[in-house]
Design a protein that fits this description.
heterodimer; A: mainly alpha; Cytochrome C Oxidase, Chain A; two-stranded antiparallel ribbon; B: mainly alpha; Four Helix Bundle (Hemerythrin (Met), subunit A); 6 helices; 75% helix; flat; binds protoporphyrin IX containing FE; binds copper (II) ion
């Protein structure tokens, strides 16, 4: 049934031959040298410090939501860096390749990247940044914070949580290995159709892109199911729906998008896969295929996906603005309604990504209006943040600086989005870099929100704060870089620079391109300050308090710092939206439980990791059409799942004495004795 | 909402043991969400079917109205519903705690499902043999995919039932086994609902578009 492909094919190795390894390309050789060195340093230091067992047991086999969250975030940061390098390559190429007289290096007519390579660079940039940087960073934060904010022991399905992580890692690995074995897609991150079909794109690049998206999408869907179930089923007693912290609420909205939108992507990619592998004609040009169908399906996922990413960032901003204004969030119920509204309306705006397809005035009118409606709940959010700050006691700590910047960026991104939603404007700037600048403003909201959140919750997870001074340097250089890159980009877009160009004929754009390169250089500085911030803070490790910023409001600040692996020694009773603020107002913030009961914990297991790696093997084999390996690894996954279902391991029980001892060592003040005087029924469940 | 209540003498701050959650309800709820996602995959295929069910997309080949038999589809529908009924009888037996009843119900469900798959796959094979395989046109690609997506779900359900037959025998009705049996029930009904929609939308409305 399999369709014939160009080039050699062998049963053992499929399409894989030595030619697939681009050892003649100096850029890739250089990249390989760096990646190999980094790999050797990491593996070498693990071996040198004899940490193999530790890494395996405590991390790779972990089902603890905090550890999994941290691994998600490490993955996200690494991919963010790789995506950044892709961005650097695009900027430098465009700065060199302007006008017919511009020089060419390394075999390129202009610049140093031939068109085919340049296309792969921006396709990889988009895919990596959205799917393998932004998504894991936000998923990681949700993983760490949501169970803590609702007073839960872990996620509802800790094992599934680990599976989700390792499936995402498998997708990222696929993108990384495409650098050195074969090639990546040149059909953009959205997959241009019918260009991504086999006849016009016979290489393995599109397959890499497709399977990477497919397998990580699976992980994201599972994670969304997990988040919803956790929030619905595992909230601490007393936490009614209107006492759920806003970050948890946005995770709920996001996860609803996750469960409903990602399957559409799965279906669209599966059809593309059928077209490419067995020769169906869903999206073929001719044979009764319809490639606009793909574009519609893709954006049916794609637009909800952008809200899937930005809503958690909105939640982060809400938490941080309210904490550093020492005020409760203004308009909390409207915030929830706005989140749900955005998630809902986000479903009916997808066609604004291709107004120019010729859908006719009625459809354009509908999608244009629907897109504009999204501005309303978004505006509600912005006003709520401003009113939260109004008359608050504002501390301009690093997280707050990031959060305020995010509000400004949201304004620019939102207003340019509004411009684009007017189809008349869109007809002139569609597929220009104006659009690129618009969504980068939005994506920077996500980036800024993540950096804010990392600084904000770092002490909770690791027990010490990040260095403030370096954090501010990081912040200012990052903001300066963003302004320098994206303001000129808006201008170039209005001047008519089409996106995705490896060569610019219009020499009048040169000053703008050079400004953007300066911006990228400043970004490099910010990367330096980020790394310096991490290193210096790790070296100093000044212990943070339980309520690290002094103005914490929600449950996560109620437990020990760093959070013990069982989260809360005893599940708290919730009395208010901002439980910790409520306890502070009542002078109860130091209250400790007087009795401990045994805790049931899930056991660690290496199975999720193995399943993820088998998933990687399976998709890699599919990319290269190594049928036996694909079949064998899929079969192995199914068998492992079945075998595990026969496993009777129900986890283990942590005895009350162990918890009591651990809590005594952790807590700085022993208030248990005094507390019982202040509090007649201090922490007993008798009333129940 | 955010109204401030003062802590009093009877304020409870901690709830020892409150983290013991009802795992079966969490698992069935989670699985229900999974089905929601699965339903959207199928909805996407249906959307494609709606678009491609068009003479333009038949590429000179047949459309459903040219080869589908509503009465044969009706027979298949009854078989699927019979299979669901059989599984439902298994869940009735589960309430009584009867291993034999549960096993018999599942075996009945499996047998009917196999018959169903035999008919459905046989039809697809005949279509391919007549030169109207999935590679013939955009429409046929989508038709085959729709039918096979449902068949894949059935196949998966059959595998799951086989595993559960063993587990019911080996473990009896432990919490794990019961949770899985309940999820499997949802899955089996879901699969049948998908078929009913296929029947109505493809077989009955097949000619009209
Ligand atoms: C007020 C809200 C927003 C409005 C009205 C809006 C409007 C639009 C419109 C009309 C386009 C299509 C432009 C074209 O291709 O010609 C577009 C593109 C885009 N927007 Fe937005 N947008 C909004 C928010 C967001 C957010 C929150 C994100 C991401 C977090 C985002 C990410 C994107 C992306 C990624 C694209 C282009 C994708 C591509 O073609 O590669 N937008 N936006
Ligand atoms: Cu959009």
């Amino acid at each position: 049934m399999q369709v014939a492909v160009d080039g050699p094919w062998s049963p053992l190795l499929g399409r894989l031959t030595l030619e697939a390894i681009p050892y003649t390309n100096p850029i890739l050789l250089f990249t390989f040298a760096i990646a190999a060195t980094a790999g050797i340093v990491v593996v070498g230091s693990v071996l040198y410090f004899r940490k193999v067992g530790y890494i395996w047991r405590e991390w790779l086999c972990s089902v603890d939501h905090k550890r999994i969250g941290v691994m998600y975030m490490i993955l996200g940061l690494v991919m963010l860096f790789r995506g950044f390098i892709d961005g650097v390559m695009m900027r430098t190429q465009q700065a060199i390749a302007i006008g017919p007289d511009s020089p060419g290096y390394l075999g390129a007519a202009h610049g140093y990247l031939p068109p085919y390579h340049f296309d792969q660079v921006y396709s990889a940039h988009g895919t990596l940044m959205l799917i393998f940087a932004a998504t894991p960073l936000l998923t990681g934060l949700g993983n760490i914070i949501v169970p803590l904010q609702i007073g839960a022991r872990d996620m509802a399905f800790p094992y599934l949580n680990a599976v989700s992580l390792w499936l995402t890692v498998a997708g990222a690995l696929l993108c990384m290995i495409s650098l050195f074995v074969g090639e990546f897609s040149n059909a953009t991150w959205v997959g241009l159709m019918p260009f991504a079909e086999l006849p016009s794109n016979p290489g393995v690049g599109v397959d890499y892109w497709m399977w990477a998206l497919q397998i990580s999408g699976l992980g994201t869907t599972f994670n969304a199911i997990n988040i919803i179930t956790t929030i619905v089923k595992m909230r601490a007693p007393g936490m009614g729906w209107f006492r759920v912290p806003v970050f948890t609420w946005v995770n709920m909205a996001t996860a609803i998008i996750g469960v409903t939108a990602f399957p559409v992507l799965t279906a669209a990619l599966a059809m593309l896969g059928l077209d490419r592998y067995v020769g169906t004609h869903f999206f073929s040009a001719g044979f009764g295929g319809n490639y606009m169908l793909y574009i519609n399906l893709f954006w049916t996922w794609g637009h909800p996906e952008v809200y899937f990413l930005v809503l958690p960032a909105f939640g982060l901003i809400s938490e941080i603005v309210s904490t550093f204004s020492a005020k409760s969030l203004f308009g909390y119920p409207t915030m929830i309604a706005a989140s749900m509204g955005i998630a809902g309306v986000g479903w009916v705006v997808w066609a604004h990504h291709f107004f120019t397809m010729g859908m006719g005035p009625n459809l354009i009118g509908f999608f244009s209006a629907a897109t504009m409606i999204v501005g309303i709940p978004t505006g509600v959010k912005a006003f709520n943040w401003v009113f939260t700050m109004f008359r608050g006691r504002i501390t301009l700590a690093t997280p707050m600086l990031w959060a305020i910047t995010c509000i400004l960026l949201l304004l620019v991104g939102g207003i340019t989005g509004m411009m684009l939603s007017a189809s008349v404007v869109d007809y002139t700037v569609h597929d220009s870099v104006f659009v690129v600048a618009h969504f980068h403003c939005m994506v920077l909201v996500i980036g800024g929100g993540v950096f804010a959140a990392v600084t904000y919750w770092w002490p909770k997870v690791f027990g010490f704060k990040l260095n403030e001074t370096l954090g501010q340097w990081f912040f200012w250089t990052f903001v300066a870089g963003s302004v320098l890159v994206f303001v000129p980009m808006f201008m170039a877009g209005l001047d008519g620079e089409t996106r995705r160009l490896d060569y610019l004929w219009d020499t009048s754009l040169r000053p703008l391109m050079l400004l953007e390169v300066v911006g990228i250089a400043v970004y490099f500085l910010s990367v330096f300050f980020f790394l310096a911030m991490i290193v210096v803070s790790l070296a100093k490790r000044e212990p943070a308090e339980q309520d690290a910023w002094g103005t914490g409001r929600s449950l996560e600040w109620l437990t020990q710092t760093p959070v013990p692996f069982y989260n809360f020694a005893v599940t708290p009773q919730v009395h208010a939206l901002d439980e910790l603020s409520w306890r502070k107002a009542n002078g109860l913030e130091k209250a400790q439980p007087s009795t401990y009961v045994p805790i049931h914990m899930p056991s660690s297991t290496g199975l999720p990791f193995i399943i993820g790696m088998l998933g990687f093997a399976c998709t890699f084999a599919l990319v290269w059409r190594i049928w036996w390996l694909a079949g064998a690894s899929l079969l192995a996954i199914i068998l492992l799942v079945i075998i595990r279902s026969f496993d009777k391991n129900e986890g283990y029980v942590l005895p009350a004495e162990t918890i009591a001892a651990a809590e005594r060592n952790l807590s700085t003040v022993s208030v248990i004795a005094e507390q019982s005087k202040v509090l007649p029924v201090g922490g007993h469940a008798e009333a129940h | 909402m955010a109204s401030f209540t003062k802590a009093g003498a009877d304020t409870v701050l901690w709830n020892p043991g409150a983290d013991a959650h009802d795992t079966i309800s969490a698992r069935t709820y989670g699985f229900w969400l999974y089905l929601l996602g699965d339903a959207l995959i199928i909805a996407a295929v249906f959307a494609c079917y709606a678009v491609l069910n068009n003479p333009l997309n038949a590429n000179g080949g047949p459309l459903g109205k040219d080869f589908l038999s509503a009465s044969k589809g009706m027979l298949q529908t009854f078989i699927v519903l019979g299979s669901v009924l059989s599984y439902s009888l298994a869940t009735v037996a589960l309430k009584r705690g009867s291993k034999l009843g549960v096993s018999l119900g599942m075996i009945g469900a499996i047998l009917l499902a196999v018959v169903f798959l035999g008919i459905g796959l046989g039809d697809l094979a005949a279509l391919s043999a007549a030169g109207d395989g999935f590679a013939r046109s955009g429409y046929l690609s989508c038709f085959f995919t729709l039918i096979l997506t449902h068949a894949l779900h059935m196949g998966f359900g059959i595998l799951w039932m086989l595993v559960m037959l063993v587990q019911v025998g080996v473990f009896g009705f432990t919490e794990n086994v019961v949770a899985r049996l309940l999820n499997l029930r949802m899955f089996w009904q879901f699969q049948a609902s998908v078929w009913v929609v296929v029947y109505i939308y493809v077989y009955l409305f097949g000619g009209a578009h």
